[in-house]
Amino acid sequence: MEQCDGQDGMASPATPGSGKSKLDTLSKEDLIKFVKKQIVILQKAKSKCTELQKEIEELKTQSSGGTDDAVIQELTTRLESVLLEKAESHQSMVSLRKVNEKTKEELKDALAAVQDLQKKQESSENQHLNKIEVLNEELKTAHEKHKEEITRLENELQESNVKHNTLSAQLEQQLEAHLVQQHEVKRLLEEINRVQVTSEEQILQLRQQFEANAEKQKNEITRLQEASGNSVAEYQNKMKNLQEEFQVMQTNHCDEVSQLKEQLESAASAHQKELKTLEEDLAEQYLLKGKSLQDELLTCRTNNEHQLNQLKEQLREMTEKQTEQLQGEVPKESIVEEERLKCLEKSLKALEVQHRLVQDEFKYTTNLKEKLETELNHIKDDFFHEREDWEFKINELQLSKEEYMSTTTKLTEEVKSVNDRCELMMNQQSYEIQVIEQQHAKELSTLEENLRTAAEKDIQEFLLEAENLKKQCQMLLQEKEEAQTNYENLRKNMETLQTELEESASKISHEFEAMKQQQANEVHDLQQKLRRAFSEKDSLQETMNRLQAEVETKNKAIEELNQMSKLEVKIQDLMSSIEQKESTLTKTQEQLEISLREKEELVTAAQTSEEVSCRLKESFEKEQAKCVDFQQQIQVLYEDRYKLQERLDETAAKLDVAISETNSSYHKAEELENRLGAAVTEKEHLVAEIKNLKDFNTNLEKQKALQKDTEES
């Protein structure tokens, strides 16, 4: 029995080691399976123990001695099997304890991780809440600013609307004044219709003025032609000078670029040569220094080795001499030898110092080599940077050259356009001059024909003269009708202008130039008509003077006739009518001047209204730009808000993920706790079973002891 116990004790410590190595490598599922197997084995052991107890009871009942040995052998074999199972169960218990400790540690780590996660979650929630509060405050401030800006813009729009209303009222007032002026013009037309007969002398004066103006225009045209020719010549000279300067600048620029390129290439080549020379010099110096240092090191080593060998030989000789002459040595020789030893030690120290110096020099040369390499790298980097700078400058020069070329092309195009405009102006002026000359020639031809017809008439016949006077009156009536038609055309033009002004009250800024051109053309037409009228007046006055002279001659010739008084009365009547016509013409001229002044005032008012409208447009455009800026700011705010919402959604998603992870970790912890509870219960069951087995073993041992005692007795 004691041998069996010893065998069990030897077997039990060997198996835990193997079980330990296997259980450490197993997973949780494999451990659970292993525990279940151990529980099944324990149940089998329990069943075997019950069977053994039953057999023992049966054996106790049996009293035959021959069968005791067989029973004891069976019992011993069964006990050995039970002990083996006990050792296995003990190993499983040890492994289960280790697993339980590991699970406890894992639970502690998991709980600590859960606490850390909870703390991090709380801190992140606090941070997100703070960020949300800050963002809400920023949004509130942005909304307030936006509201303030909107109110300010509304106020500015109201002010601009008020200004626009005031300007529209002013324009309406001006239109009313224009209507009043039109009524006055109608009244003047009626007065002119009344005063048609008294326009002969004024027509003659107008003809004279027309001739004078024609001469002035001819002089002005010649002067303008000369001035335009001079300006064109000056402009061409300037263009030639500019082209020459441009060519000079271009050549200078090309020369500078070529010089810079050559300088760059020369500098680059010189720099590369310097770098190569420096590298070669440094390499040669380094090789020379390395060779010299290697030679010095070799010489120093050989000297040191030679001196060391000599010292070793001397020491050997000294030791041999000392061994031979230990007893017969003199103290003086010992002192000499000691001095020699000291000298040798000093020489050794000096050699060591030299060796150190050589090592220091070698280190210094290596450091110099590294410094020179770094300097070379720096020089290369500087050269590379300088090369990049020069390339950048060359690119800038090329860009400036391209810009200069583009500006020159633009200038040439502008010069061509100006030349074309000058040619067009010259052609227009020549065409106008030709038209004026043709008109003047026609008028002169008509005047000559009239004079010829008047000269060919018979002076002696008074009746024919009366008929001529009637014809002239008819001509005057026709001219009056022409003037009326011209005036009606003017009135129609004024009416059209009025309608255009009424229509273009909202479009003054776009159509003001057309109005100015139309008004200028109309003024020019009026001036031409006035000149024609004055020229006709001059011609009529000349005819009247001629007729008066003829009448005087006739009066002298026909003094004897009694009809002279009648003619004088008629002449006086004609003179009075002419004076009346002159007075009416002066009045009409004054009224026309007043109307022209009023028209100029209207033009100035329209210009001021156009300027005001331009200012309003500029302010409106500025306000539109401000509105666009505000809209952009609002869009930016909305984008920021959208980004913040996305961030909040991302943080919420992250929080959900973290919460799900914490929940999963909680579930895992609960599962681990449940597993630990199950393992603890299983452990308790195993402990109880082990206790029962121990009790059973103690009972068996007691029974064996009793059996031994009975056998010994």
TrEMBL record:
Chain segments carrying region Disordered: 1-23
Keywords: Coiled coil, Cytoplasm, Phosphoprotein
Organism: Callorhinchus milii
GO biological process, one term: late endosome to Golgi transport
Membrane spanning stretches: none
Record's protein name: GRIP and coiled-coil domain-containing protein 2-like protein
GO CC terms, sorted: Golgi apparatus
Coiled-coil regions, chain positions: 93-170, 200-361, 437-598, 669-703
